[in-house]
Specification:
The complex is a heterodimer.
Chain A (H helix, E strand, L loop, with lengths): L3 E4 L2 E4 L5 E7 L5 E7 L5 E9 L2 E4 L7 E2 L9 E3 L8 E8 L9 E3 L3 E5 L1
Parallel strand pairs in A: 2-11
Antiparallel strand pairs in A: 1-3, 3-8, 4-5, 4-9, 5-6, 7-8, 9-10, 9-11
Chain B lengths: L3 E4 L2 E5 L4 E7 L4 E9 L5 E8 L4 E4 L2 E6 L4 E6 L8 E9 L6 E3 L3 E6 L1
Classes of the chains: A mainly beta, B mainly beta.
Amino acid sequence: EADIYQTPRYLVIGTGKKITLECSQTMGHDKMYWYQQDPGMELHLIHYSYGVNSTEKGDLSSESTVSRIRTEHFPLTLESARPSHTSQYLCASSAGTSGSLYEQYFGPGTRLTVT
Amino acid sequence: KQEVTQIPAALSVPEGENLVLNCSFTDSAIYNLQWFRQDPGKGLTSLLLIQSSQREQTSGRLNASLDKSSGRSTLYIAASQPGDSATYLCAVRRRQGAQKLVFGQGTRLTINP
């Protein structure tokens, strides 16, 4: 079983608050990813990182930002939460080498509700 | 642009039946395809990863096949059990460049005791 953790698991906050969703992995993976998933819908990549100090925007535009200061840590921040940000946020990581087949391992997710 | 479609969106079958979940993709230039399971409100668990050069992969009661030229993959579940109830997602990874996955919407499977 993969060792990738997300906190909090559930979060209900008011509009305008700043929040940070935490993601950590203990596998030493270089590549990390954030996906957004609305209920009953497919996952969409919103951010990814190839390694420390590397961050890229994903396929779906997002008002969130990410940082990668340490290999094991990839936090996602919303400066001013809005009801449209209500969704499930999933973090993933992969070894990022062809020998690993780039298989991604997922965390349990954070379900965010903005009121 | 790669698009992934899963049919049906939902499936309900009695316990013990064998069943097939379908996944189709529009661009055959894939590196590999991954099947996941997602329980309600939870993250994704990887079930099988099948390389573009492979035709099938097996793990226990699960068998995934890949026909890259026709843009299709199937996940076969043998002797289904109530514990198999979950949403099953397929995702494809592009051949070149970033290791990003493109997901289908999933098939919500219910196994009735």
